[in-house]
C-alpha cells in the first residue's frame, strides 16, 4: 500500500508545486493521475521514488517511510518502486536482455553488475517476463532497433525485474501512436491484476484513463480536486481540472517538468 500524507514540494521561494497532497493506493488497483501540464503530476511521481526531494510530508510504502531515507536504505527502498518513463530510458547500444537485467542491478554485487554475470534465476525470470509481454524473440537484439511500443515493453519488463511493490508510469504512452498506446495501457492493466501490483499512471489522455484504469485522480495547481471511479469522471470534473477548456484526448502535451523547472528559476 502506498500512503501519501500532506505532501508538499516547493522550489526555492516560489509557490508550492504540490500543496499538501493526500493519496492512498492499494491492492492491484490501476490509478491514473490526470491534469493539465504544470498540475504537478510528474513531480508527485518523482517524489515517491525520491528522484525529486519532497519539501515536507509523508510517503509510506507498505508501512515504511520513504521521505527520510538516505544512502543504502534509500537504494534498497527504490528497488521496490518500479518506474516506467515516457522516453523509455533504455541503453540503446545494449541488447534487450541486457536492458531487462538492469532491473536487477540493485540486487547483485558490483562485480556481477560490471561483468554482467547475473544469476540463472534472474535470466530465467527475464525470459519469462519477456515472453509474457511478447518480446522474448528480441532478447539479443539491440534496443535501438526496436519500435516505440517494443521499447516500452522492454522498459516495463525492466521495472518488473525489480520485483516492485508498486509500479509508477510517467506518461508511458506519450511517445507512442494511438493503437500502440492502447496496447501498452491494456498491458499495464492486465499485469496489475496478474501480479496484484498497484500501478500509478500519470497520463494526459483522459479517454485512456477512463478505459484502462480503476480510479482517476484529477489535479490542478498542485492540488487534488477529483478522486473517483471513471464512471463518475463527468464534465463537471473535467471543467474543474482543466479550467473549462476541452480536455486533451491525445497524448503528447508538454510534461510537468518544463513548467516546474521554469518555476524553479523564476
TrEMBL record:
Q: Which PROSITE patterns match?
A: ABC_TRANSPORTER_1, ABC_TRANSPORTER_2
Q: Which GO terms describe its cellular component?
A: plasma membrane
| MF (Gene Ontology) | ABC-type phosphonate transporter activity; ATP binding; ATP hydrolysis activity
What is the annotated localization of this protein?
Cell inner membrane
- Compositionally biased spans, kind Basic and acidic residues: 256-266
* Pfam families the record matches: ABC_tran
Q: Which chain positions lie within coiled-coil regions?
A: none
Limits of the ABC transporter domain: 2-246
Give membrane topology per the record: Peripheral membrane protein
Q: Which UniProt keywords apply?
A: ATP-binding, Cell membrane, Membrane, Nucleotide-binding, Translocase, Transport
Identify the SMART domains for this entry: AAA
- Region Disordered, residue ranges: 245-266
Q: What is its main location?
A: membrane
- Please identify the protein, giving its name as recorded: Phosphonate ABC transporter ATP-binding protein
Record organism: Natronospirillum operosum
Amino acid at each position: 500500500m502506498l500512503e501519501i500524507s500532506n505532501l508538499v514540494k516547493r522550489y526555492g521561494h516560489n509557490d508550492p508545486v504540490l500543496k499538501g497532497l493526500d493519496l492512498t493506493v492499494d491492492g492491484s488497483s490501476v490509478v491514473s493521475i490526470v491534469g493539465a501540464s504544470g498540475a504537478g503530476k510528474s513531480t508527485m511521481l518523482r517524489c515517491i521514488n525520491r528522484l525529486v526531494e519532497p519539501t515536507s510530508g509523508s510517503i509510506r510504502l507498505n508501512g515504511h517511510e520513504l521521505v527520510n531515507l538516505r544512502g543504502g536504505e534509500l537504494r534498497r527502498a527504490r528497488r521496490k518502486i518500479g518506474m516506467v518513463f515516457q522516453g523509455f530510458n533504455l541503453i540503446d547500444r545494449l541488447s534487450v536482455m541486457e536492458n531487462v537485467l538492469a532491473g536487477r542491478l540493485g540486487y547483485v554485487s558490483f562485480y556481477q553488475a560490471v561483468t554482467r554475470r547475473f544469476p540463472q534465476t534472474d535470466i530465467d525470470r527475464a525470459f519469462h517476463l519477456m515472453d509474457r509481454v511478447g518480446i522474448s524473440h528480441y532478447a539479443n537484439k539491440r534496443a535501438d532497433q526496436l519500435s516505440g511500443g517494443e521499447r516500452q515493453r522492454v522498459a516495463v519488463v525492466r521495472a518488473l525485474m525489480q520485483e516492485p511493490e508498486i509500479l509508477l508510469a510517467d506518461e508511458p504512452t506519450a511517445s507512442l501512436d494511438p493503437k500502440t498506446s492502447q496496447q501498452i495501457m491494456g498491458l499495464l492493466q492486465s499485469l496489475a491484476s496478474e501480479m496484484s501490483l498497484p500501478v500509478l499512471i500519470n497520463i494526459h489522455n483522459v479517454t485512456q484513463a477512463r478505459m484502462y484504469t480503476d480510479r482517476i485522480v484529477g489535479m490542478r495547481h498542485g492540488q487534488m480536486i477529483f478522486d473517483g471511479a471513471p464512471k463518475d469522471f463527468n464534465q463537471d470534473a473535467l471543467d474543474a481540472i482543466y479550467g473549462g477548456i476541452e480536455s486533451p484526448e491525445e497524448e503528447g502535451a508538454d510534461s510537468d517538468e518544463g513548467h516546474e523547472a521554469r518555476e524553479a528559476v523564476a
